[in-house]
Amino acid sequence: VRNLKGLQDIIGVTVVDLALGGCLVRGAAAFDVGAILDLALPFEGSPLAVKVRVVETSKDGVSLPASQPRYLAGMKFLSLSAADEMRLRTFLESEGRRRRSADAPPA
Questions:
Q1: How far is CA 12 from CA 39, 74, 88, 91, in A?
Q2: For site-directed labelling of 94, which of 1, 5, 8, 44 has its Cα 20 to 30 A away?
Q3: Strand, helix or coil at 10?
Q4: CA gap 4, 73 in Å, rounded
Q5: Each residue of 24-50: pLDDT tens digit?
Q6: Comparing 5 with 75, which gets the higher pLDDT?
């Protein structure tokens, strides 16, 4: 994640949930609500690069008291090319089918 306000810090995050409209990420730093960021998601082939707006942030409830706190941030996709939207849609549909078949009882 890169902050677009001139800071060139790269902050590593873990994607917790992913949808066509945005994602939920977990990381060591809290993000400012309203911040516009560059997010690069590792994808087959090449990364999916998208501008996002931080819509909410909170301390992660699963953080252990003895460890460093972790934070959750909801991010809304602002610009996603048609090709990247198709890549994301294909991935989400494939992942949905994979999960449904894994949850299905044996025949």
A1: 10, 15, 20, 22
A2: 1
A3: strand
A4: 17
A5: 999 888 889 999 998 888 887 888 889
A6: 75
Report the predicted TM-score, pTM, of the whole model to 2 decimal places: 0.77
DSSP class of 66? T
Question: Which residues lie closer than 8 Å to 25 by C-beta, 6 or more apart?
Answer: 1, 13, 14, 15, 16, 72, 73, 75
Paired tokens of 11: 């902050």
Beta strands in the chain, from DSSP E residues, in sequence order:
2-3, 13-19, 22-27, 36-41, 48-59, 71-79
Q: What pLDDT is recorded for position 8? A: 47
Q: Residue 17 has which token pair?
A: 């949930």
